[in-house]
Amino acid sequence: MATATKVAAAPTETPARPGPRRGRPLRWLPLAPATVMLLLFLGGPIAYCVYIAFTNMQLTGASSTDFVGLDNFRRAFGDDDFRNAVVLTLVFTLLSSLVGQNTLGLALAALMQRASRPVRTLTGSIVIAAWVVPEIVAGFLLYAFFRREGTLNALLDWLGLPSQNWLYTLPILAVSFANVWRGTAFSMLVYSAALSEIPKEITEAAEVDGAGGLGRFWHITLPMIRRSIGTNLMLNTLQTLSVFGLIWAMTRGGPGNRSQTLPVFMYDQAFNKSLIGYGTAVALLLLLVGAAFSVVYLRLMKEEV
């Protein structure tokens, strides 16, 4: 006769409701000093600069500072020199950042991935050496390269090719090349890290399927590193928009105003002409240009996800 076994049901315990978190405000206490420092040393100067942009503050020649509203911004949009600086800034950014640094950095990263170790070491050392050189030093080096009696013309004369004063005939191209020479290392490092993350199995499978080198690069490599491309473009663009020392050392915005980008124009108005209020208004407009580029890049990166 089978004996029935009784299984005792385990008593169910009602989970206790969590009590109020009394220590929650204290979790943000360690961040308080950093927040205060940021507001004091970053937010404070920004707010003061915004205020100055709406005044007629001058370094010399004015006994008082008055609030002028939007007059500085109206003056900027009606100033031919300001519009020229905006165009040159966009040309400089397009040539040296979007096309130059980005394309050359990606090409170097792709080539170094296939090169031998000694070649990678030598190439990386040369490119990064140009990046770590201070901006003002790089400006004087490139000035010596492009000037009428400089290295480039000496090389062209030795080859029997016509030479010219590059800093006078093509100043914006000369400073764009200088910025490419100095800043390509950052793009190369970003893309080298991105390319190293691509699984080799994917490229090997595409190669077995008959895809050529260009096809693999276009249909596999670029789509897989598109977020790195967007991030690199955004950072490079913001850095290029603020380049001042390189251009000032090479051309000082000249001849005339043919290489006067917005940072150089802003410096000239604020310190050479003592128009601090007007120069600060131009700085705020430059900040808005950088913000517009950032929004565009972030929206493009978000749509690609």
Fold and architecture overview:
The protein has 14 helices and no strands. It has one domain: MetI-like fold. Helix content is 70%, strand content 0%. It is mainly alpha-helical and 305 residues long. It has helices at residues 32-53, 71-77, 80-114, 117-132, 135-146, 151-159, 166-169, 171-196, 200-208, 213-224, 226-241, 245-250, 262-272, 276-304. The relative contact order is 0.13. The chain crosses the membrane at residues 31-54, 85-110, 122-146, 166-191, 233-251, 275-298.
Q: What about the largest sheet?
A: none
Alpha-carbon distance between the termini?
Answer: 68 Å
CATH C-level name: Mainly Alpha
Question: What string gives the helices and strands in order?
Answer: HHHHHHHHHHHHHH
Spans where pLDDT lies below 50 across 5 or more residues: 1-10
Per-chain topology:
Elements: H1 32-53, H2 71-77, H3 80-114, H4 117-132, H5 135-146, H6 151-159, H7 166-169, H8 171-196, H9 200-208, H10 213-224, H11 226-241, H12 245-250, H13 262-272, H14 276-304
Helix pairs in contact: 1-14, 2-14, 3-8, 3-11, 4-8, 5-8, 8-11, 9-10, 11-14, 13-14
InterPro entries: MetI-like, MetI-like_sf
Subcellular location: Cell membrane
Domain ABC transmembrane type-1: 87-297
Descriptive tags:
14 helices, 305 residues, 0% strand, disordered N terminus, MetI-like fold, globular, mainly alpha
